[in-house]
Specification:
42% of the residues are buried. The protein has a single domain (10-244), classed as 3-Layer(aba) Sandwich (Rossmann fold). The chain has helices at residues 19-30, 42-55, 70-78, 108-136, 157-176, 196-200, 205-211, 220-231, and strands spanning 10-14, 34-39, 60-64, 89-92, 140-144, 183-189, 192-193, 218-219, 241-244. The strands form two sheets. Strands 3-2-1-4-5-6-9 form a seven-stranded parallel sheet, with helices on both faces. By secondary structure, it is an alpha/beta fold. The N and C termini lie far apart (46 Å). Helix 3 (70-78) packs parallel to helix 4 (108-136). Bound molecules: 2-hydroxyethylsulfonic acid.
Length: 259
């Protein structure tokens, strides 16, 4: 079995300034990959870039990009310097949740932000990057899904719908690249302790902390390890989907909380 060496590979990660995206950047850096990092927060992204270089990435190129703007996404990919243009691995990580409300009481602007980022943003980046992979005859797209995409939970209909859409897009893309060597993977975590809940509750730390109460959640590093593992499989192996949860979580509705 010949594992895929990640040394010198160009890995493009969206939402790379924090959480799972930042942890994934560092994990690929440890494998000697070259990192193309995109996010909206240039300051935070610069910190991740420095840490990645310290971890062993031979080079890092950062792009200030909002995945919700399809022209900006296409332009960013079209204008990459030649030495960065041949993306080997795309990690479609940018995503967020906003609010936890009954559907009929939800805020329209929260819905737009989630749908524009998690669904349309994923499509825009995929549309801009995958044609080059098909032409080059190599590439791997790794999408961030969620247990929320398998089973809808109360007050989360729109967020869960965006992750159900990710599941459909992931499976559709795999069918549409069939006949090329391009691989397509979805990594679907349950509860992960990042700024996810803080963002969902717009900075309300007490409410965010309650989400993780009595449960030992997954960490961003746990997810990054799985992403790097999927990318490192031999070229003939496609990992279609990985679902991972804390031991204290059975699915998106059922937890065992201590105390
Ligand atoms: C994140 C998992 O259950 O908090 O996608 O929505 S959950």
């Amino acid at each position: 079995m010949s594992l895929m060496s990640l040394q010198g590979k160009i890995v493009f990660i969206t939402g790379a300034s924090a959480g799972i995206g930042a942890a994934t950047a560092l994990a690929f850096a440890s494998e000697g990959a070259r990192l193309l990092l995109a996010a909206r927060r240039a300051g935070k992204l610069a910190e991740v870039a420095s840490a990645a270089l310290a971890r062993g990435a031979p080079s890092v190129h950062s792009i200030d990009m909002d995945v919700r703007d399809h022209r900006a996404v296409q332009n960013a990919i079209d204008s990459l310097p030649a030495e960065w243009a041949e993306i080997d691995v795309l990690v479609n990580n940018a995503g967020l949740s906003r609010g936890l409300d009954k559907l009929y009481m939800g805020r329209i602007e929260d819905w737009e932000e989630m749908i524009d980022t998690n669904v349309k943003g994923l499509l825009y980046v995929t549309r801009a990057v995958v044609p080059g992979m098909v032409v080059r005859g190599r590439g791997h797209v790794i999408n961030m899904g969620s247990t929320a995409g398998e089973l809808t939970y109360p007050n989360g209909a729109v967020y869960c719908a965006t992750k159900a859409a990710e599941r459909s897009i992931n499976d559709g893309l795999r069918q549409d690249v069939l006949g090329t060597p391009v691989r397509v993977t979805s990594v679907d975590p349950g509860m992960v302790e990042t700024d996810f809940s803080l963002v969902r509750f717009r900075g309300d730390r007490d409410r965010a902390a309650k989400v993780y109460k009595g449960v030992k959640p997954l960490t961003a590093d746990d997810i990054a390890e799985v992403i790097v593992w999927a990318a490192g499989r031999p070229a003939h192996v496609n990992i279609a989907r990985v679902v991972l949860t804390p031991v204290q979580q059975a699915n998106s509705l059922l937890f065992h909380r201590d105390g």
